[in-house]
Specification:
The structure is a single chain. This protein is α/β, with parallel strands linked by helices. Helix content is about 45%, strand content about 10%. It is built from 9 helices and 8 strands. Strands 3-2-1-4-5-6-7-8 form an 8-stranded mixed sheet, with helices on both faces. The longest helix has about 30 residues. The radius of gyration is 22 Å and the shape is elongated. About 25% of the residues are buried. The structure holds NADP nicotinamide-adenine-dinucleotide phosphate (NAP). The site of NADP nicotinamide-adenine-dinucleotide phosphate (NAP) has 23 residues, from helix 1 and helix 2.
Amino acid sequence: VSIIGSGNVAQHLAKAFENSSDVELLQVYSRNKSDLQHLPFAAKVTDNPNGLHAADLYVIAVSDSAIRSVAESLPFEGRLVVHTSGSVALSELDAKNRRGVLYPLQTFSKKRKIDFGQVPLCLETEDPNDSVLLEKAARAISGSIFSMDSQQRKAMHVAAVFASNFTNHLYALAADLCEKYSVPFEILQPLIIETASKISELPPLQAQTGPALRNDLPTIDAHLAMLPDDNFKMIYKTLTQSIQQWQKATKN
Ligand SMILES: NC(=O)c1ccc[n+]([C@@H]2O[C@H](COP(=O)([O-])OP(=O)(O)OC[C@H]3O[C@@H](n4cnc5c(N)ncnc54)[C@H](OP(=O)(O)O)[C@@H]3O)[C@@H](O)[C@H]2O)c1
C-alpha cells in the first residue's frame, strides 16, 4: 500500500500500515517531504510523483478539494486508487485507475494517538472484484469494516457532523459560558464522558435528560435570561424545540 498525502489522516494511516504485519507500507508521497521526516516511516517518503513504485493499492489522503487534481496527476493507469473522504463521491477520482473509497470514520489530529484497530472503515469499490483487495488491506489495520455506497457514506458523514462536530461546538459554547461566569469547564468533563458512554447501552432517545425533555418552562426561561447573546439563545431554543418534537413524534 502507498499513501498519498502528509496530513492528519495520511500520517495515521501510514503508521497503521507500517505497524501491520499483513500489509506492507511501500511509500508515502507528499509534495512537502519535511512534514514527515520525524515519523518512523520517513525512509519511505518521496516528494517525486514519478518515483511512485507499483503498489496494489494507493490511498489518496489529501484535502477534499485536491482529491480530483491529485488523482488526475498520478503517473500510472489501471491500478486501485482510493480516497479517504466521507463526502467526496468515488467518481471524483480519475477513471484511468480502478476506483474506491476507504473512509475512516473518526476524528484525526496529527498530535493525538489513536487506536487504529478500533476505527470503523467504510469501504466502496467501483468494481466488485476490487472489494476483496480493499477489504484485505482494511482488515490489516482495523477490526471494524463496513461496505457502503457513496450515498450511504455521505449520510454517515452528515451523521458524524451531528454526533461529533456539532457536539464539539456545543462544548466550545459551554466552555465560553463557564468562562463568563468564572466556573471551571473541567467540572463538566465527567458529565461529558458519561453522556457519550451511556449511548453504547441506551438508544440516544432513551438517554435524553434535561429541562427540554421535562418541559420545565421556568428553568428554560431562566436559562434563556442568563445567556449572553442572540446566538446562544437561538441555539438553546432550537435544540429545546428539537428535543421536544422528537419526544412527541416518537410517542405517537
Ligand atoms: N481529519 C479527519 O478527522 C478526517 C477524518 C476522516 C476523513 N478525512 C478525510 O481525509 C482527507 C485528508 O484530511 P486531513 O484531515 O488529513 O487533511 P489535512 O491534515 O488538512 O492534510 C491535507 C493534505 O492534503 C495535501 N494537499 C492539499 N492540497 C493539495 C494539492 N493541491 N496537491 C497535493 N496535496 C495537497 C496537503 O499537503 P501540504 O501539506 O503539502 O499542503 C496535506 O498533506 C480528506 O479527504 C478528509 O475529508 C479526514
